Amino acid sequence: MKNKFLLLIFCLLVPLVLHADSEDPIALETAILDVPSAEVLDRYEASFLGRAYAHGTFMETIDFGVYPRINLGVSLAIHELIGSSSHVRVLNPDFQAKWKVYDGNLYMPAIAIGYDGRRYGYGYDKKRHYTRTKKYLDDRKGGYITFSREIFVPGLIASAGANLSDFEINRVYGFAGLFYRVTDQIGLLGEWDGVRNIRDSRANAGIRFYLHPSLALDGAVRRIGRGSESERVVQIRYVTNF
Questions:
Q1: Residues 229, 128 contacting (CB under 8 angstroms)
Q2: Does the pTM exceed 0.90?
Protein backbone atom coordinates (compact mmCIF):
# COMPACT_ATOMS: atom_id res chain seq x y z
CA MET A 1 0.00 0.00 0.00
CA LYS A 2 2.78 2.44 0.91
CA ASN A 3 4.71 1.95 -2.34
CA LYS A 4 1.55 2.27 -4.43
CA PHE A 5 0.64 5.49 -2.62
CA LEU A 6 4.08 7.06 -3.20
CA LEU A 7 3.94 6.07 -6.86
CA LEU A 8 0.52 7.70 -7.19
CA ILE A 9 1.76 10.97 -5.66
CA PHE A 10 4.80 10.95 -7.94
CA CYS A 11 2.66 10.42 -11.03
CA LEU A 12 0.34 13.25 -10.02
CA LEU A 13 3.06 15.77 -9.25
CA VAL A 14 5.41 15.27 -12.19
CA PRO A 15 2.89 16.42 -14.85
CA LEU A 16 2.03 19.46 -12.71
CA VAL A 17 5.66 20.52 -12.40
CA LEU A 18 6.32 19.98 -16.10
CA HIS A 19 3.25 22.04 -16.96
CA ALA A 20 4.13 24.91 -14.62
CA ASP A 21 5.53 28.09 -16.14
CA SER A 22 8.37 29.82 -14.34
CA GLU A 23 6.46 33.09 -14.77
CA ASP A 24 3.27 31.78 -13.12
CA PRO A 25 2.02 34.18 -10.43
CA ILE A 26 2.04 32.43 -7.09
CA ALA A 27 0.77 33.01 -3.54
CA LEU A 28 2.19 30.19 -1.43
CA GLU A 29 1.99 32.07 1.85
CA THR A 30 -1.79 32.03 2.23
CA ALA A 31 -1.04 30.14 5.47
CA ILE A 32 1.98 29.54 7.68
CA LEU A 33 1.20 25.94 8.64
CA ASP A 34 -2.14 25.92 10.47
CA VAL A 35 -2.31 29.67 11.06
CA PRO A 36 -4.01 31.53 8.18
CA SER A 37 -2.43 34.68 6.83
CA ALA A 38 -4.39 37.56 5.32
CA GLU A 39 -3.09 36.69 1.84
CA VAL A 40 -5.38 35.07 -0.73
CA LEU A 41 -4.97 33.46 -4.12
CA ASP A 42 -5.49 35.74 -7.09
CA ARG A 43 -8.59 35.27 -9.20
CA TYR A 44 -8.26 32.17 -11.41
CA GLU A 45 -5.46 30.74 -9.26
CA ALA A 46 -5.77 27.26 -7.77
CA SER A 47 -3.80 25.72 -4.90
CA PHE A 48 -3.36 21.96 -4.40
CA LEU A 49 -2.02 21.04 -0.96
CA GLY A 50 -1.24 17.47 0.07
CA ARG A 51 -0.38 16.85 3.73
CA ALA A 52 0.84 13.58 5.29
CA TYR A 53 0.82 13.41 9.08
CA ALA A 54 0.25 11.21 12.14
CA HIS A 55 -1.23 7.70 11.95
CA GLY A 56 -0.71 7.44 8.20
CA THR A 57 -3.24 10.15 7.41
CA PHE A 58 -3.18 12.00 4.10
CA MET A 59 -5.24 15.13 3.48
CA GLU A 60 -5.75 16.83 0.13
CA THR A 61 -6.88 20.46 0.14
CA ILE A 62 -7.91 22.36 -3.00
CA ASP A 63 -8.49 26.14 -2.94
CA PHE A 64 -9.63 28.40 -5.77
CA GLY A 65 -9.52 32.14 -6.32
CA VAL A 66 -13.09 32.37 -7.56
CA TYR A 67 -13.52 36.15 -7.25
CA PRO A 68 -11.12 39.02 -6.55
CA ARG A 69 -10.09 38.72 -2.86
CA ILE A 70 -12.28 35.62 -2.29
CA ASN A 71 -11.07 32.03 -2.03
CA LEU A 72 -13.16 28.88 -1.69
CA GLY A 73 -11.90 25.36 -1.10
CA VAL A 74 -12.58 21.81 0.00
CA SER A 75 -10.51 19.22 1.90
CA LEU A 76 -10.65 15.45 2.18
CA ALA A 77 -8.59 13.26 4.51
CA ILE A 78 -7.98 9.50 4.43
CA HIS A 79 -6.98 8.03 7.78
CA GLU A 80 -4.26 5.31 7.94
CA LEU A 81 -3.83 5.40 4.17
CA ILE A 82 -0.02 5.39 4.41
CA GLY A 83 1.32 2.08 5.68
CA SER A 84 -0.09 -1.41 5.88
CA SER A 85 -3.14 -0.77 8.09
CA SER A 86 -6.38 -2.56 7.24
CA HIS A 87 -8.44 0.18 8.95
CA VAL A 88 -8.29 2.78 6.17
CA ARG A 89 -11.12 5.28 6.61
CA VAL A 90 -12.23 8.18 4.40
CA LEU A 91 -13.14 11.06 6.72
CA ASN A 92 -15.92 13.56 6.13
CA PRO A 93 -14.93 16.33 3.71
CA ASP A 94 -14.51 19.86 5.05
CA PHE A 95 -14.58 23.24 3.36
CA GLN A 96 -12.81 26.55 3.78
CA ALA A 97 -13.33 30.12 2.60
CA LYS A 98 -11.45 33.40 2.94
CA TRP A 99 -12.19 37.02 2.07
CA LYS A 100 -9.43 39.63 2.14
CA VAL A 101 -11.23 42.74 3.30
CA TYR A 102 -8.27 45.14 3.52
CA ASP A 103 -4.88 45.24 1.81
CA GLY A 104 -3.08 47.06 4.60
CA ASN A 105 -0.81 50.11 4.43
CA LEU A 106 2.28 51.55 6.10
CA TYR A 107 0.53 51.67 9.48
CA MET A 108 -2.19 49.04 9.31
CA PRO A 109 -1.96 45.28 8.62
CA ALA A 110 -3.83 43.44 5.91
CA ILE A 111 -7.08 41.90 7.19
CA ALA A 112 -8.98 38.78 6.14
CA ILE A 113 -11.96 36.90 7.52
CA GLY A 114 -12.77 33.29 6.78
CA TYR A 115 -13.87 29.83 7.77
CA ASP A 116 -11.73 26.70 8.07
CA GLY A 117 -13.48 23.39 8.70
CA ARG A 118 -10.38 21.19 8.74
CA ARG A 119 -9.70 19.08 11.85
CA TYR A 120 -6.63 17.06 12.81
CA GLY A 121 -5.86 14.20 15.14
CA TYR A 122 -8.65 11.78 14.23
CA GLY A 123 -9.07 8.82 16.57
CA TYR A 124 -8.36 10.36 19.98
CA ASP A 125 -10.59 10.08 23.03
CA LYS A 126 -11.36 12.74 25.64
CA LYS A 127 -8.24 11.76 27.59
CA ARG A 128 -6.14 12.50 24.50
CA HIS A 129 -5.27 8.84 23.93
CA TYR A 130 -5.26 7.32 20.44
CA THR A 131 -7.93 4.60 20.58
CA ARG A 132 -9.50 4.58 17.08
CA THR A 133 -12.49 6.63 18.19
CA LYS A 134 -14.30 9.06 15.91
CA LYS A 135 -13.16 12.10 17.93
CA TYR A 136 -10.56 14.68 16.90
CA LEU A 137 -7.64 15.96 18.95
CA ASP A 138 -7.83 19.43 17.35
CA ASP A 139 -11.13 21.21 16.78
CA ARG A 140 -11.81 22.95 13.48
CA LYS A 141 -10.70 26.55 13.39
CA GLY A 142 -14.20 27.62 12.37
CA GLY A 143 -14.81 31.31 11.77
CA TYR A 144 -11.75 33.52 12.11
CA ILE A 145 -10.24 36.96 11.54
CA THR A 146 -6.55 37.31 10.79
CA PHE A 147 -4.13 40.23 10.46
CA SER A 148 -0.81 40.12 8.56
CA ARG A 149 2.04 42.52 7.90
CA GLU A 150 5.78 42.66 7.40
CA ILE A 151 7.65 43.56 10.60
CA PHE A 152 11.19 44.60 11.57
CA VAL A 153 13.07 43.26 8.52
CA PRO A 154 12.16 42.59 4.87
CA GLY A 155 10.67 39.14 4.38
CA LEU A 156 9.54 38.65 8.00
CA ILE A 157 5.74 38.35 7.98
CA ALA A 158 3.68 38.18 11.16
CA SER A 159 0.09 36.91 11.25
CA ALA A 160 -2.23 36.88 14.26
CA GLY A 161 -5.93 36.68 14.96
CA ALA A 162 -8.79 34.95 16.72
CA ASN A 163 -11.24 32.18 15.83
CA LEU A 164 -14.53 30.78 17.09
CA SER A 165 -14.58 27.03 16.75
CA ASP A 166 -18.04 26.01 15.50
CA PHE A 167 -19.06 29.65 16.09
CA GLU A 168 -19.54 29.03 19.82
CA ILE A 169 -18.84 32.34 21.57
CA ASN A 170 -17.57 30.55 24.69
CA ARG A 171 -14.86 28.85 22.63
CA VAL A 172 -12.80 31.76 21.34
CA TYR A 173 -9.18 30.91 20.52
CA GLY A 174 -6.21 32.99 19.50
CA PHE A 175 -3.35 32.27 17.11
CA ALA A 176 -0.10 33.91 16.01
CA GLY A 177 2.72 32.98 13.68
CA LEU A 178 5.83 34.16 11.88
CA PHE A 179 7.12 33.36 8.41
CA TYR A 180 10.58 34.41 7.21
CA ARG A 181 11.85 34.00 3.66
CA VAL A 182 15.54 33.33 4.33
CA THR A 183 16.57 32.87 0.69
CA ASP A 184 14.80 32.35 -2.63
CA GLN A 185 14.79 28.60 -1.86
CA ILE A 186 14.14 28.43 1.91
CA GLY A 187 11.60 29.84 4.36
CA LEU A 188 11.22 29.35 8.12
CA LEU A 189 7.90 29.17 9.92
CA GLY A 190 6.71 29.07 13.51
CA GLU A 191 3.32 29.47 15.14
CA TRP A 192 1.31 29.23 18.34
CA ASP A 193 -2.17 27.99 17.54
CA GLY A 194 -5.34 27.15 19.45
CA VAL A 195 -4.48 29.60 22.24
CA ARG A 196 -7.17 29.38 24.89
CA ASN A 197 -5.24 27.67 27.63
CA ILE A 198 -1.77 26.16 27.71
CA ARG A 199 -2.99 22.55 27.56
CA ASP A 200 -5.03 23.01 24.40
CA SER A 201 -2.62 25.33 22.58
CA ARG A 202 -0.12 24.05 20.01
CA ALA A 203 3.40 25.18 19.17
CA ASN A 204 4.36 24.32 15.59
CA ALA A 205 7.57 24.95 13.65
CA GLY A 206 8.97 23.99 10.29
CA ILE A 207 10.90 24.82 7.14
CA ARG A 208 9.67 25.48 3.60
CA PHE A 209 11.66 24.54 0.50
CA TYR A 210 10.80 26.24 -2.80
CA LEU A 211 11.37 23.54 -5.41
CA HIS A 212 9.95 25.62 -8.25
CA PRO A 213 8.21 29.00 -8.58
CA SER A 214 4.91 27.11 -8.34
CA LEU A 215 5.89 24.31 -5.97
CA ALA A 216 6.91 24.22 -2.29
CA LEU A 217 7.67 21.40 0.15
CA ASP A 218 7.20 21.80 3.92
CA GLY A 219 8.60 19.73 6.75
CA ALA A 220 7.27 20.57 10.20
CA VAL A 221 6.53 19.39 13.74
CA ARG A 222 3.14 20.06 15.36
CA ARG A 223 2.35 20.05 19.09
CA ILE A 224 6.02 20.44 20.01
CA GLY A 225 6.80 19.11 23.49
CA ARG A 226 3.59 17.07 23.82
CA GLY A 227 5.13 13.60 23.86
CA SER A 228 2.97 11.09 21.99
CA GLU A 229 0.73 13.92 20.74
CA SER A 230 3.57 15.52 18.77
CA GLU A 231 3.57 14.72 15.08
CA ARG A 232 5.77 15.18 12.06
CA VAL A 233 4.15 16.74 9.02
CA VAL A 234 5.19 16.71 5.38
CA GLN A 235 3.18 18.72 2.90
CA ILE A 236 3.58 19.82 -0.70
CA ARG A 237 1.76 22.70 -2.36
CA TYR A 238 1.33 23.42 -6.04
CA VAL A 239 -0.21 26.66 -7.30
CA THR A 240 -1.31 27.30 -10.87
CA ASN A 241 -3.90 29.14 -12.94
CA PHE A 242 -7.20 27.73 -14.20
A1: yes
A2: no
